[in-house]
Automatic annotation (TrEMBL):
Gene3D superfamilies: 3.40.50.880. GO terms for cellular component: cytosol; nucleus. SUPFAM superfamilies: Class I glutamine amidotransferase-like. Residues 85-225 form the Glutamine amidotransferase domain. Pfam families: GATase (PF00117). It comes from Penicillium steckii. This is Glutamine amidotransferase domain-containing protein. PANTHER family: GLUTAMINE AMIDOTRANSFERASE DOMAIN-CONTAINING PROTEIN (PTHR42695:SF4), GLUTAMINE AMIDOTRANSFERASE YLR126C-RELATED (PTHR42695).
Amino acid sequence: MMTTEVDKTTKPSSEAPVVRLMVLETDKPHPDTYSQRGSFGKIVHEHFSKAGKAHHPPLGVETDQIFVVTEYGGRMPEVSDFDRFDGLLITGSVYDAHGNNQWILDLLSLLKKLWTTRPDFHFLGVCFGHQLLARMLGGEVGPAPTQDWELGHSRITLTSAGQRLFRTRENFVFLHQMHQDQVTDLPGGNGLLEPGTKVECWGESEHTKIQGLYIPNRLFTTQAHLAFDEDMVKRQIQIRVDGGGIKDLEHADRAAETAHLEHDGVEVAKAILRLFVYDDDGMGYKRQ
């Protein structure tokens, strides 16, 4: 894990800046996870609230959530539903971000409208959300060339952009993975990005060369999961084994054995919040 020089968990005051996020839920957690921690939207809220307390000054985090898988009883929001929000976060999902389910196509249409009509708006994506936002901006998304899964506790090598974003001289972070699909080419060329816009990749692993995307003041995505705990990792692996997605049971078992290991999910969430409000902690890089 990255070491951190400052570890404050001050409670945000009533005068603290507030980041307002709409969480677009593209899946539902395992029933046992839901009974213990709630929906993915609630899990996101708790995770970013923790990161907000470590911000300088402390940030409040307000969230709302909409389950958008319309073929399973969800609803697709309207652009006006985002009027009072500063950004959105798209969760992970068992669905393929390169698929053409009607709800996925409708979500892509909504995202494009928001991108073009709200230049002040921020776009965040985790796993499926990372891939879908890349697709929306013209990136290529598909199964890993090796057809295998990246599972469990994973070391991600940071690019120079990643070291800058996470304020560290170390060249790696650790996060939990749960995917076979990946972004294979950086976005660009579909007309949504202003000329000269630089889309940066902040990290890579042996399995996946594009672990996250960054556009200043606009977009931050991560292929890995920020808020997974040990039980969630094991349960989400089991869901995919039971559904037939993961066929290499030995690989699944090895990944489940790493579920207890510490990871840098809070550090990534802190970096994401700096997309909204500058973190004036004066620390520059973190201590090695």
